[in-house]
Amino acid sequence: MAVDLGGTNFRVCSIQLHGNSTFSLTQSKVAIPRELMVAKTSKELFSFLAKQIEVFLKAHHSEHYHGHIRRRKTISSEQGFAEEEIFSLGFTFSFPVHQIGINKGLLMRWTKGFDIADAVGKDVCALLQTEIDELHLPVKVAALVNDTVGTLMARSYTSPGKSGTLLGAIFGTGTNGAYVEKLDKVTKLKGDKEAVYDKSTGEMIVNTEWGSFDNSMNVLPNTSYDKELDEKSVNPGIQMFEKRVSGMFLGEILRLALVKLVKDPKVPLFKDDNSATNDMHSTTNIAESSALFKQWGVDTSFLSIAEGDTSPGLRMTRQTLDKDYGISAASAEDAEAVKLIAGAVGRRAARLSAVAIAAIVLSTGKLASQPTTTADVKAEIARGPGAQDKGTAHASEEDVIDIGVDGSLVEFYPGFEDHVRTALREIPEIGEKGEKRIRIGIAKDGSGVGAALIALVAAKMEKPESIDEE
């Protein structure tokens, strides 16, 4: 099993691996109530999470769940039950933690709108396990997984060909990346006496936490809208890169830009007398209760609607402005302005995402090995892009740099990957040749499947010797 707490939703799933890079997945998803994201105690949040696991077991593994309950009532054993009766759980927890074991991690700080001071410094696996045990569920938290590590693992399992996956990245509610690094370059480990890891592979997965890149604001773009968003956020001065890239914040950046324009008497946005045409034949009006005037009132999905709108007169955008944001009878010019601004916000996010990807590709030296021959590369280019993963048709398998991505932005925002690739080509150290060697593929359900894979390995590594297995 796997659970995923990575943003505004909590996901519970069970995964069956078929062993041929495919899997079957059963899942449920529930929104995290806003009040629990800023609860006074960690128990309020984690008891809610455990309850969702119970609901899932009853709905999808009813026989297993009720069988466990019956055994608890009739059997007494100090050693517990056989392993096959207990679900090993991979806990995808997409917040900064100091991980000191496969299923132990101390919360360093909250991000993505969460702010529960009581949980900081505590072992999040223990917090969840305590609430699971309170409900007497047949579940053991076997592994703590960051969603990017899970995405990396899931992509490694499902990726085509034999090339290993270098990077797992999330571009959704939040953003982060985890990649495979040479062990001798991970110098911090030398001073960490608590760290337990396998030296035999010569490699280690590094969780970059790139959402906090340049919190000191030395190089990141910083508009007045970025500044206002940060000042009014629950974590000012933190996650500055994420606040310019992730889906949680892009809608708010657009909202702040639109509000400033609406309040400027010199700007003709949503002002009827400045519209050349208005096919609704009525006066443009913004309701006083419009979500446009409320913090977080504009959802990032609206950027996708505006960017992908090819309807005559941008009718889809205008209908959304009316239905969701109380802006009635917006003109085609209004919609065009919104589309341009939304496009600029989304394009900047994609280009910054490319910077993060490029940093990993360059720092690991993966571009140092050149493609086999110029003729091979030309032949691949002539065949055109691959059907599923862009970049796969541009280099031989051994030259491919495989990257797994997940998240609503990269999956649903029109042209997001195209903007990323354009930016990659503009980086001199990568260029057109290097960009064509980078294969970017969606790692569907990465946080769930990846966490389950890690939980499976962790459970096999730690089997109680006292339990008789047949």
UniProtKB/TrEMBL annotation:
Pathway: Carbohydrate degradation; glycolysis; D-glyceraldehyde 3-phosphate and glycerone phosphate from D-glucose: step 1/4. Coiled coil: none annotated. Residues 1-157 form the Hexokinase N-terminal domain. One of its GO terms (biological process) is intracellular glucose homeostasis. It comes from the Eukaryota. Its EC number is 2.7.1.-. GO terms for molecular function: ATP binding; D-glucose binding; fructokinase activity; glucokinase activity. Residues 167-457 form the Hexokinase C-terminal domain. GO terms for cellular component: cytosol; mitochondrion. Keywords: ATP-binding, Glycolysis, Kinase, Nucleotide-binding, Transferase. Belongs to the hexokinase family. This is Phosphotransferase. It comes from Aplosporella prunicola CBS 121167.
